Amino acid sequence: MKWKKNYKRVDYARGKVTVLELVTRYISLKQNVRYNTRVGYNFVLNILKKEAFAQKSIRDIKVSDAQL
I need a surface site. Which of 3, 4, 24, 27 has the fewest CB within 10 A? Predict the structure, then answer.
C-alpha cells in the first residue's frame, strides 16, 4: 500500500516534519476524491507554500499559531 510507505517515513513523535510536508502527505492519502475537491486541496496547498508557517516544524507549532 502506498500510504503505508509514506506513513513509515514520518517521525511524528519527534516532530521533525514541517507543516507543509504534513499537509502534502495528508493530501496524498486522499485518493478517491472528486475533481473539484482535488482542485481545492491544491489551491490551499499553493497558498500554504507561500507562508512562512509552512516551513515550521510541527514540534514548534502551538495551538495559538494554528488559530485564525
Answer: 4
Q: Which amino acid is at 40?
A: G
Higher pLDDT, 20 or 15: 20
In a domain, 21, yes or no: yes
**Residue 49 pLDDT more than 80?**
yes
Cβ neighbour number for residue 19 with a 10 Å cutoff: 19
Name the residue among 2, 8, 25, 11 with its Cα closest to residue 57. Answer: 11
- How many CA atoms lie less than 13 Å away from 55 in the CB half-sphere? 4
27: phi then psi, degrees, rounded to nearest 5: -65, -35
| Residue 43 resides in a domain | yes
Residue 57 in contact with residue 16, Cβ under 8 Å? yes
Q: What's the total number of domains in the chain?
A: 1
Range of the domain at 32: 14-60
